[in-house]
Specification:
With 166 residues, this protein is mostly helical. The chain has a single domain, classed as Collagenase (Catalytic Domain) (3-Layer(aba) Sandwich). The protein contains 5 helices and 3 strands. A 3-stranded mixed beta sheet has the order 1-3-2, with helices on both faces.
């Protein structure tokens, strides 16, 4: 992670710890979302696990290049295991989210939010993609994802804009 002048590594760790403490609120807000609105093929599960990885821009660039054929870093990538033909066992995660910490730092400055809030926004956005929401499909899908993203952020007590509003 590249450091911003005037901000210590200790402050970054405090921001990440704050983000980790906010995850239960984000999880609760996401639990209220009906997956069937985006993915009718998802059977109900008692427990849903999604892995979240905080990575550098360099790692994100490799992932984005490999899986999306875009040779640049991005803020968040989601990989849904629900889209495979192989059924998942109940204990397996339904997907993974990769968040670029470098990009989150820049976006937090740009949008005048904390790093913890930006990480929460990116996590919520990535989770919606795993759930089947896709703002890149059509204007209708973008509006649907924007509405749900706003609901999640409000329920989680985050006074910030979602990615689809930016």
């Amino acid at each position: 992670m590249s450091l911003v002048p005037g901000k210590s590594p200790r402050k970054y760790m405090q921001d990440i710890e704050h983000y980790a403490r906010s995850l239960p609120r984000i999880t609760k807000a996401l639990a209220a979302v009906d997956w069937r609105l985006a993915r009718a093929d998802v059977p109900p599960r008692k427990k849903t696990e999604i892995l979240v990885h905080l990575v550098s821009d360099a790692v994100m660039k490799k992932l984005n290049s490999t899986y999306r054929h875009k040779p640049k870093a991005t803020d968040v990538l989601s990989f849904s295991y629900l889209e495979t033909a192989t059924p998942l066992f109940a204990h397996e995660p339904v997907g993974e989210i990769y968040v670029s910490l470098d990009t989150a730092v820049r976006q937090a400055r740009e949008w005048n939010t904390t790093l913890a809030e930006e990480l929460a926004v990116l996590t919520a956005h990535g989770t919606l993609h795993i759930m089947g929401y896709d703002h890149e499909k059509s204007e209708t899908e973008m509006k649907k994802m924007r509405r749900v993203e706003k609901q999640i952020l409000v329920r989680a007590g985050l006074p910030v804009q979602g990615l689809t509003d930016r």
